[in-house]
Each structure stands twice: as structure tokens, then as C-alpha cells.
């Protein structure tokens, strides 16, 4: 008898996208196209279109961490917003089209490399993480450097646990991370050749082992969608969103501070730390307030995105 053992990420037949969801997605694309023409001057139209998209993904069993159960005074964003609007230049610069262009991206199987100042370099499959580390759900603020924000229930495990598993040596002072490079699947990498692909980011090691730093494999109770960084991404919620690198393929422990993507491309606008700071404006806009997409209104931006108590000591 042939017994088929499904992978943790396998989508069961009962979870195939229902017909009504498929048609809702088509309506979303049509309305999003109208919103593109209107530009960000008409956020309400884009948000109404995004709310009609509700894709289905393989579920994850992860209890919510009571320390990060909610964000006071702010609702969790509908999944249609979190999955319908994202920055992922590897696919396109148009936020509302990322989910469409990333739909055919192959996020499994997925090999990840650990190297640098570790006791023994190694490789692993991303699904090994689902078996090795207990998953939990955390509700975090997500603040983009472009001054928009949402609240998302991420599923993952503390980056600190991963760092300990990698067994860095005493020489390791930073954790460098690198994303994928597949221009045949990612049109942004193919068309925007002036960017130094693949995307790369880094944290100081004391930042990486802070209790807030999370390696994420899912959101909204299921595996990550491609447009949100499947199959593995970082969430560092006290920093601007571009620090939370998506679709990681390499972890490298280094002694010297690594270069980072946006600091290389536009150094006068993006620093290495990239901590959320309402008192320091971006050269082209204020960071004092942000557009909360779920509420569809501007709210004050908090120092360290509201996580000052947990991380401010790292920067004194």
C-alpha cells in the first residue's frame, strides 16, 4: 500500500479557493486598476478594492502569545488589505499588483543556507523549521517608511531561538540576511536592473536576539502568501518595514557591519538602524504621523513604533 504523507505546507482539497473568492479576486484586480490611475491621492478606493480579495492558504496551528495579543486602540487589518497591498520591488513597484505578479512564484521547496562565523555552516529546508520550533502568533504594528501602517497577526518563532540553533562563534557581531534572485519568476528583478539584487539586510546581533525579533512563516493563521514574503521572512516591528527582509535564502553571521540594500542605494534617506522615529523626518516627507490603512485616517507615529520599552536600551 502506498501511503502519501503530505508536507506541512500542502493545501488540502477542502481548502481550494472557492469559486466566489476567485470572482472576488477578479473584481479586486479590476477596481485596483482604477485606483492605480487615481494614485495614492484616492486611498479609500484602493482599500475598498483590497477588502474584496480573500485567498485561502494551508492552515497553521499556532497559539497567540498573550504578551502580543492585540495593539491597544488599533484593529487587526483585514487580511485582504495585508495581502492586497505590499512593497515587494522584486515583483513590481505597484503595491496593489504584487499579489498578482507573485502568484506563480515557487516558494517551495526552499533551501536556506547558514554560514559565516558559526561553529559549522549548514543548509536546511524551510519546512524543517515548522517541525523544529514551536510556532506562535503575535499581533504587531507594521510601519512602512512611506508613512503608512497596519496591524498584522504574524505566525512564527523568536529569531533568538534560531540564532542559538545556528551556534554563532564569539566573533559574530551581526546577522546578515539575503533574499532570493530569480528574475525569470520575479519581473521586478528582470526589469529594474539598476537595483543590486538580490535584496540584503542585516541586524546587530543584540537586535537579532531581542525578544521582539520574529522569524515568520505565516500570517492570519496560515502559511505566508508569496506577496508577503513566503516562505520565510523577518519581522522587526520597532524598525521601518524595509528592514524586515522577505523570502530569506541566506543567514550569514559576520564580525563587521554588513552593507544593507537601501542604505547602499539611497544612503542619504535610509540608515542602517532604520528605527521608527517620529522626530526625524524622511528627506521627502514627515514621519510624525502615518496613514493607518484599516482606519483609513492619519494617526501619530510612536517612537520605536510603540515598542520603546522593549528596545530603547539597545540604542543608548
Task: Provide a descriptive summary of the structure in words.
There is one protein chain. The chain has 316 residues and is α+β, with helices and mostly antiparallel strands. It has a domain at 106-315: Alpha-Beta Complex (Sulfite Oxidase, Chain A, domain 2), CATH 3.90.420. 22% of the residues lie in helices and 21% in strands. It has 10 helices and 12 strands. The protein has helices at residues 19-38, 43-50, 79-84, 98-101, 126-132, 159-166, 187-191, 205-208, 261-265, 308-311; strands spanning 111-116, 122-125, 136-143, 148-158, 174-179, 200-204, 214-219, 222-223, 233-235, 248-254, 289-292, 297-300. Strands 3, 4, 7, 8, 9, 11 and 12 form a 7-stranded mixed β-sheet that branches. The protein has a 5-stranded mixed β-sheet with strand order 2-1-10-5-6. Helix 1 (19-38) packs antiparallel against helix 2. The longest helix has 20 residues, at 19-38. It is globular and about 50 Å long. The protein starts with 18 loop residues before the first helix and ends in a 5-residue tail after the last helix. The model is unreliable at 1-54 (pLDDT under 50).
Amino acid at each position: 500500500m502506498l501511503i502519501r504523507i503530505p508536507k506541512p505546507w500542502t493545501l488540502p482539497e477542502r481548502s481550494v479557493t472557492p469559486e466566489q473568492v476567485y470572482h472576488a479576486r477578479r473584481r479586486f484586480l479590476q477596481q485596483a486598476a482604477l485606483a492605480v490611475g487615481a494614485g495614492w491621492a484616492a486611498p479609500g478606493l484602493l482599500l475598498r478594492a483590497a477588502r474584496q480579495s480573500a485567498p485561502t492558504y494551508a492552515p497553521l496551528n499556532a497559539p497567540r502569545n498573550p504578551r502580543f495579543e492585540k495593539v491597544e486602540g488599533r484593529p487587526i487589518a483585514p487580511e485582504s488589505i495585508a495581502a492586497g497591498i505590499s512593497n515587494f520591488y522584486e515583483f513590481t513597484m505597484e503595491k496593489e499588483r504584487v499579489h498578482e505578479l507573485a502568484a506563480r512564484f515557487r516558494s517551495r521547496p526552499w533551501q536556506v543556507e547558514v554560514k559565516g562565523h558559526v561553529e559549522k555552516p549548514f543548509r536546511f529546508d524551510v519546512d524543517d523549521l515548522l517541525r523544529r520550533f514551536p510556532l506562535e502568533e503575535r499581533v504587531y504594528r507594521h510601519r512602512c517608511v512611506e508613512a503608512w501602517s497596519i496591524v498584522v497577526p504574524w505566525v512564527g518563532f523568536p529569531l533568538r531561538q534560531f540564532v542559538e540553533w545556528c551556534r554563532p562563534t564569539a566573533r559574530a557581531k551581526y546577522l546578515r540576511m539575503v533574499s532570493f534572485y530569480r528574475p525569470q519568476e520575479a519581473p521586478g528583478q528582470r526589469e529594474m536592473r539598476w537595483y543590486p539584487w538580490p535584496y540584503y539586510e542585516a541586524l546587530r546581533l543584540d537586535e537579532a536576539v531581542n525578544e521582539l525579533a520574529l522569524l515568520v512563516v505565516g500570517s492570519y493563521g496560515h502559511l505566508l502568501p508569496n506577496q508577503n514574503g513566503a516562505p520565510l521572512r523577518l519581522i522587526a516591528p520597532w524598525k521601518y518595514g524595509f528592514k524586515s527582509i522577505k523570502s530569506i535564502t541566506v543567514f550569514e553571521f559576520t564580525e563587521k557591519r554588513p552593507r544593507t540594500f537601501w542604505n547602499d542605494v539611497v544612503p542619504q534617506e535610509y540608515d542602517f538602524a532604520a528605527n521608527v522615529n517620529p522626530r526625524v523626518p524622511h528627506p521627502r516627507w514627515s514621519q510624525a504621523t502615518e496613514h493607518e490603512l484599516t482606519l483609513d485616517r492619519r494617526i501619530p507615529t510612536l517612537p520605536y513604533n510603540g515598542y520603546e520599552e522593549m528596545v530603547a536600551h539597545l540604542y543608548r
